[in-house]
């Protein structure tokens, strides 16, 4: 089935920017006759149809806000939604909530549903801010929105986040300070999360600053709960990593389970660190070492700022909130009582199910 044309396709066909297409179609700014003709010609040739519902209802007062997150399974997003809900209730607003499962095409469909339900504005987390068809649609319709978690890009839309690259660097440097010199990374798919990309950059930056060469990153789906095969592959050879950095807490929890499945102990054999700071990480045994994001505060700040955009046409806000390192029991000095010292190579291969 042929993909439905979007505003980005119109811009490419006409040889202009997305903002220029938006100005022409919305009659919201200057454009030369030649530019206007090029845009309208491109619209006709590719069969682009703007969302008229969203445009005609964008000034309606429904006192409803749309909220789009990548997943309802990851507690970090639940914490953010809780912050949004509490702030919205204080202001007399309701929210509509849905998730995209990290899929850009689902982001677009969610935005269309929100617009048809007359939301006054949106709080969203998208796969990649720099190339998001869903955000293109919101810009075209002129509906206010605020990003959460996505990185701050200036100039760009309102965004409330943390410095993902610096935070990843912080936790990897914590592993290095414990004595680890071989640290691997398990990351959620980069094409589904610009935050995952930044965390990889922080991981690699920390290692290179200490004269270490990063391993190829193990890239997996965000909802993958069984990492046993990936862990077995990492430790198939004698010189396996002494520590794992995972781009989310959920992946770190799955990694700990996977390591246990192949006969390795955390942190005695392998240290594991995560990223997000979800509460369940503190309740585990061992408790999870991680970076804590102020998720609930991010949600509350996003709602507060969005209402200033909805009601007062406030300018874009780029807000980077502080993160913190939460040490846990899942990391420690390397090889405290390593399985690699106790077992012969043959015994180790048997433990990994390969011999």
- What share of residues is helical? 40-55%
Cα distance spanning the termini: 47 Å
How many helices in DSSP terms? 15
CATH homologous superfamily descriptor of the largest domain: Response regulator
Mean pLDDT: 88
Q: Label the overall shape.
A: elongated
Radius of gyration: 23 Å
Structure, explained:
The structure is a single chain. With 355 residues, this protein is an alpha/beta fold. It has 3 domains: 1-50, Orthogonal Bundle (434 Repressor (Amino-terminal Domain)), CATH 1.10.260; 52-162 and 297-322, Rossmann fold (3-Layer(aba) Sandwich), CATH 3.40.50.2300; 164-293 and 326-351, Response regulator (Rossmann fold, 3-Layer(aba) Sandwich), CATH 3.40.50. The protein has helices at residues 7-14, 18-26, 33-46, 52-57, 75-90, 104-116, 133-141, 164-177, 194-209, 228-234, 249-261, 280-283, 295-312, 339-342, 345-351; strands spanning 64-69, 94-99, 121-124, 145-148, 158-161, 183-188, 218-220, 243-246, 271-273, 290-292, 318-320, 324-326. The strands form 3 sheets. Strands 2-1-3-4-5-11 form a 6-stranded parallel beta sheet, sandwiched between helices. Strands 7-6-8-9 form a 4-stranded parallel beta sheet. Helix 5 (75-90) links the parallel strand 1 and strand 2 (94-99). The protein is elongated, with a radius of gyration of 23 Å. The model is unreliable at 337-349 (pLDDT under 50).
What's the SSE blueprint?
Blueprint lengths: L6 H8 L3 H9 L6 H14 L5 H6 L6 E6 L5 H16 L3 E6 L4 H13 L4 E4 L8 H9 L3 E4 L9 E4 L2 H14 L5 E6 L5 H16 L8 E3 L7 H7 L8 E4 L2 H13 L9 E3 L6 H4 L6 E3 L2 H18 L5 E3 L3 E3 L12 H4 L2 H7 L4
């Amino acid at each position: 089935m042929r993909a439905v044309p979007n505003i980005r396709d119109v811009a490419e066909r006409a040889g202009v920017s997305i903002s220029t297409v938006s100005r022409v179609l919305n009659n919201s700014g200057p454009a030369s006759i030649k530019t206007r003709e090029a845009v309208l010609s491109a619209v006709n040739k590719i069969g682009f149809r703007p969302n008229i519902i969203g445009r005609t209802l964008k000034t309606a007062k429904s006192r409803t806000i749309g909220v789009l997150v990548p997943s309802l399974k990851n507690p970090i997003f639940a914490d953010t939604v809780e912050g949004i809900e509490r702030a919205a209730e204080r202001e007399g607003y309701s929210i509509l909530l849905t998730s995209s499962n990290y899929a850009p095409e689902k982001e677009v469909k969610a935005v269309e549903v929100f617009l048809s339900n007359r939301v006054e504005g949106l709080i969203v987390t998208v796969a990649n801010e720099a190339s998001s068809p869903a955000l293109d649609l919101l810009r075209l319709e002129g509906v206010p929105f605020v990003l959460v978690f996505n990185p701050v890009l200036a100039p760009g839309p309102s965004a409330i986040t943390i410095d993902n690259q610096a935070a990843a660097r912080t936790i990897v440097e914590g592993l290095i300070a414990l004595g680890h010199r071989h640290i691997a990374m398990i990351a959620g798919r980069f094409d589904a999360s610009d935050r995952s990309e930044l965390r990889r950059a922080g991981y690699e930056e920390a290692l290179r600053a200490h004269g270490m060469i990063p391993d190829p990153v193990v890239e997996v789906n965000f909802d993958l709960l069984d990492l046993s095969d990936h862990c077995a592959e990492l430790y198939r050879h004698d010189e396996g990593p002494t520590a794992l950095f995972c781009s989310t807490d959920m992946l770190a929890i799955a990694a700990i389970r996977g390591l246990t499945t192949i006969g390795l102990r955390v942190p005695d054999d392998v240290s594991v660190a995560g990223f997000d700071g979800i509460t369940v990480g503190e309740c585990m045994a061992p408790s999870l070492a991680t970076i804590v994001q102020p998720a609930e505060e991010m949600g509350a700040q996003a709602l507060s700022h969005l209402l200033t955009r909805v009601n007062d046409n406030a300018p874009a806000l780029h807000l980077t909130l502080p993160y913190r390192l939460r040490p846990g029991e899942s990391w420690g000095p390397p090889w405290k009582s390593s399985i690699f010292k106790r077992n012969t190579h043959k015994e180790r291969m048997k433990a990994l199910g390969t011999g």
